[in-house]
Each structure stands twice: as structure tokens, then as C-alpha cells.
Amino acid sequence: MIGLSKKIIIGITGSIAAFKTIQFISDLTKEDYEIEVILTEAGSRFVTPVSIQALTKKRVYIDVFDDDPGTITHVDLVKDADAFLVMPASATTIAKLAHGIADNMLTAAYLAATCPKVIAPAMNVHMFENPVTQRNLKQLVDDGALIVDPDVGLLACGDVGKGKLAKASDVKMILEYAMSEHPLKGYKVVVSAGPTQEAIDPVRFISNHSSGKMGYAIAKAAFTLGADVTLVSGQVALSPLPFIKNVSITSAQDLYEAMIEEAQDADFIIMSAAVADYTPATTATEKIKKNDSDLTLSLKKTKDILYELGQKKPKGQIICGFAMETTDLISNATKKLTKKNADLIIANSLRTAGAGFKTDTNIVTIIDQDGIRPLEIMSKDELGFVILAECLKKREAQS
Ligand SMILES: Cc1cc2nc3c(=O)[nH]c(=O)nc-3n(C[C@H](O)[C@H](O)[C@H](O)COP(=O)(O)O)c2cc1C
User: Which terminus of the chain is less hemmed in, N or C, by CB atoms within 10 Å?
Assistant: First the structure.
């Protein structure tokens, strides 16, 4: 898993958004990251070292001269860091970092750090849009930092515009990207996720329990590993993922059309969507009224998307399908591998606790031409990386 055992330095500056970083730190510590926090003097007016220390179990640094004997903290602290995040980054600190001004613990440590750097600005819209700030941010990008663009919205000062600290989930995605190798750089990965909905009439549909969690985890992992990612998603309760192309679909036919279009130049296709096999033969244009008799629906087959993709597969493209079964999992999944011309099938059983639709974990068996490999239970986030590593191995074996 990407997060485990990584050391992150987090710098907090004098912004009204500083309180959001406390929750961010709390969430990271639960994932087992090692966190060291540096506050600017102004930052310490907005959040206190006491609450941060309680979360990180580490001393919080503010004064560059407040070294323990025998240590030079601003240099020692960053030596083995995996990433340096400034969140929120004020206009003042951004200006200092862009010009190598090292006049406090945060700016001195940033200058001394050789690890990947991520900057999440937060400020008034006019401060953000000011050419001086834009020049400074461009300088930081040219120097190799990753900027998490602020959101547009109502700002604490009452103005509406760009300057709101980016969502924690966006910062986390960029941070994980910054700390990762990028073996999928230059590759296009297309992932399908979630359920399809087959309309009976304008108010009713046939669907399934897919939450989309597995597909979203794969798409997020593909972004972290440097891919150009397209996520074709059915209607789910999850937010669209930032920094990738999100394509929203409703029916199996929509999914078919989107996948055929996106597959043309894809290097990897991962079909984790739960596609309806049957759809109503006709969709009523008006709501079907209740009456005294039973209602029989006539269903017709939908297109077999995995099969169609397998038939059109260009040389070098890797296709990974999913098989969810309640009986004969392995034999059905193995048949699927050959019938659909897929490179690998990820099989999971709805009958196994900890696997399947709505859980945050999964228990799968990977099936390919080399055999059948059952995996231990793991989080869907972690499994996303495992599946992509398997796909990459297949691609490399072909070239
Ligand atoms: C209530 C309040 C809110 C502030 N919010 C921000 C902000 O969101 N972004 C920003 O760049 N500066 C903000 N400032 C101004 C900075 O705190 C000020 O420029 C300070 O010098 C920044 O220093 P630092 O970068 O060393 O933390 C705010 C100031 C006050 C009093």
C-alpha cells in the first residue's frame, strides 16, 4: 500500500484554512503515515501545536533557532522525508519559497528538502489571482513542485472566487502521486465502475448493488502510478475523481458506447462495472400505472461489452475483466477468460464475507493463462495497485 511507512513533512501557514489541515493530519495518522509538522509564526496564531502534537505524537516546530543540542532541525528533519506538503500555503510563504528565502523553520526546511514537494494554496481570490502570486506559483512549478489548485467558492473574507483550500481528498491524491513511482506514465488506462440502470419507465429501473468502490480504487491507483485515466462510471454515491477524465453513464448501452469509444487508444482496460445482462425489451414512455393484474416484463439481452472489447482488442492492449459469482466462481471465471479474449479475470464471490459489492475490502482470485492465484483479503485501495501491477506485467511480457 502506498501510504505505509512514508514520512511526510506538513507545513502550515497563517491562513484561515489552517484548521482543515488538523483533520487532514488526523486522517493521515490513522493510515500509519509518519507526520512531522512545522508551523509558521502566523500559522501558530490559527492552530495550536498542542492539538497537532496530540495527533502526531511529535514535537511541532516553529522557531528555526529552537534546535536541540547537536541537531540542526531544518536540515535533519527533512533528510529522510518522502514528501513535503505546505497546506494551506499563504501568499507570503509561496513568495518566500519561490525565491529561496529561508527565514523561518518552514521555509528553511523546504529549501533543505530534496523530496517531492506539494503546495496547496489558500487565500483571497485577488491575492491568488494577483500576477505576483501567479508568477511565484509558476516558479515553484518550474522548480518541480506540484500545486493543488484551490477551489472556487465563497471565501472566508466574503468574496466569491478561486482561493479556497482544495478538498482534502484532492490534496491526498496529489500527495500520493508525488510519493509514488510512475510506471504507467504515457499509458492510457480506462476503468469502468458501478452499476448500470435499465429503464422500465420514466421512474423505474432494474439495477444491482454495485457501489463503484472497486473501480474508483483502481482509477485512483492508476492516477497515482502516472497513467492518463478515464473512469466510465454508472450512477454511484461516490464523488467524481479529480485529475482524471470522468464519463458518467446510466445504461448498459451507454456503457457499451463509452467503452468502445474510449478503448480505441487505451493501453489497459479494466471492466469492473456491474453490467446488466438483460434490459427491458421496451421502455414505457409514461409511468406504468398500477392495476389489479400482475405485470410481466419482457427482457432482451444487452451487448456483451467485455466480449466486444476482446474482439476489437488491438495488439498490446491489456484487458482485465471481473467475475462476480455466487456459485462455481473459479470455473465460470476461467471460462470467461478464454471466451472473452481477456488477459486476466479478477474473480470474487458474493458469498465470501469481506468481498463483493459494498465493502471496503475484497477477496479475489486472479485468473490468467499462467493459472489461478487466490489473494488474501485486502482493502480495495490496495487491490487497485495489485491489479494494475498484474496488468503491467502482462503488457511488459508482450513487448
Ligand atoms: C484572519 C486572517 C486570515 C488570513 N488568511 C489568509 C489566507 O487564507 N491566505 C493568505 O495568504 N494569507 C492570509 N492571511 C494573512 C497572513 O496570515 C499573513 O500574510 C502572514 O504574514 C502569513 O505569514 P506566513 O506565510 O509566514 O504564515 C490572513 C490573516 C488574517 C488576520
Answer: C
Q: Is the pLDDT of residue 357 over 80?
A: no
Catalytic residue among 115, 157, 320, 391: 157
Residue 14 CA, ligand 1 centroid: distance in Å? 4
**Are 172 and 193 in the same domain?**
no
Question: Which residue type is seen at 157?
Answer: C
Q: Could you say which of 179, 211, 245 is where a domain stops?
A: 179
Do 238 and 387 have their domain in common?
A: yes
- Say if residues 161 and 125 touch (Cβ distance below 8 Å): yes
- Cα separation, 102 vs 343, in Å, equals 53
Longest distance between any two alpha carbons in the chain, whole Å: 87
| Cα angle: 147, vertex 188, 264; to 5 degrees | 140
d(CA 394, CA 316): 9
Q: 102-120 pLDDT, tens per residue?
A: 999 999 999 999 999 999 9
Of the two residues 356 and 359, the one the predictor is more confident about is 359
Ligand 1 centroid–CA 133 distance in Å is 14
Residue 81 DSSP label: -
Model pLDDT for residues 254-273, shown as the tens digit of each residue: 999 999 999 999 999 999 99
Query: What CATH number should be reported for the domain holding residue 102?
Result: 3.40.50.1950
Do 313 and 169 have their domain in common?
no
- Full residue range of the structural domain in which residue 250 is found: 188-398
If you take atom 22 of ligand 1, which residue's CA is the nearest one? 14
157 annotated active-site: yes
CA nearest ligand 1 atom 2, residue: 16
The pTM score is: 0.91
C-beta 90 within 6 A of ligand 1: yes
Q: Is 107 in the pocket of ligand 1 (CB under 6 A)?
A: no
- 56 pocket-lining for ligand 1 (C-beta < 6 Å): no
> pLDDT exceeding 70 applies to what percent of the chain?
97
How high is the pLDDT of residue 19? 97
CB–CB of 379/361 below 8 Å?
yes
For ligand 1, whether the C-beta of 136 sits within 6 Å is no
Cell digits of residue 238: 461516490
Task: State whether the beta carbon of 91 lies less than 6 angstroms from ligand 1.
Answer: yes
